[in-house]
Amino acid sequence: MTHAHAASAASAATSDDRYARGLAALRLVTGTEHPTVLDSLAEIAPDLARYTIEFGYGDIWTRPGLTPRQRQIATIAALSAMGNAAPQLRFHIDGALNVGCTRREIVETFIHTSVYAGFPAALNALSAAREVFAARPQDEEADDAAPAVADARDRYTRGVDVLQAVDGPEGVQVVASLDDIAPDLGRYLIEYVFGDVYARPGLDLHTRELASVAMCTALGTAAPQLRVHLRAFLNVGGTREEIVETLTQMAGYAGFPAALNALTAAKEILAEREAN
Known about the structure:
Elements: H1 3-30, H2 39-44, H3 46-61, H4 68-82, H5 86-98, H6 103-117, H7 119-134, H8 155-167, H9 169-176, H10 183-198, H11 205-219, H12 223-235, H13 240-253, H14 256-275
Helix pairs in contact: 1-3, 3-13, 4-5, 4-6, 4-11, 4-13, 5-7, 6-7, 6-11, 8-9, 8-10, 11-12, 11-13, 12-14, 13-14
């Protein structure tokens, strides 16, 4: 066998490995032995169907560093924030359930979306979730429909405490910077974002910040806030590996420019953290 033939055979074997690995991951997400989601692509763009399996699932989804649950939470967070991919959002809500996310966690992720992408995006995502849940009565969870009640402290006090736990002094400085132009917005930020949403018990702070990083990355218009949430993710126990993996995951759902911009921000924040 010539060197060229050997290289070609090695490349084909590698491609086969990626495809098999990706198909196994896709089966985990879809919960079926024969995923039908790519059938329509096979008719018009078979190469894209293959790239989706090899790259999206074989290369990215199977990487260590994030659990399947974390990958699906990050994905539905990003898709809900972008608001332009309803069929894929429904697919990944279903996939989130298949890899062990609860209905409550999915609903809480979309309530969290209201902070970063607005109420229309959150409401549209919840409509998609309702459709998926209705098609899966077999795994209905009684406690998922129950309201999540925060503790008894007033909203502002509770919000300040959560803000300091998540963002440290930087969060308080952001609120203080609004005093001379929009003090009411600063108060709403504390009361609603942290006193109401972040204080809800349906998601832990680690998962909330992972979702926040995914949303700010996918939106591509919130670089300063992304830096705040990268720091916050580290503050609540997130790791360098989880950050890198979440942003790599975003390449498949928000595109390479968004992922690269976010990685530039992450590099700054991680260097800053290591220097201190």
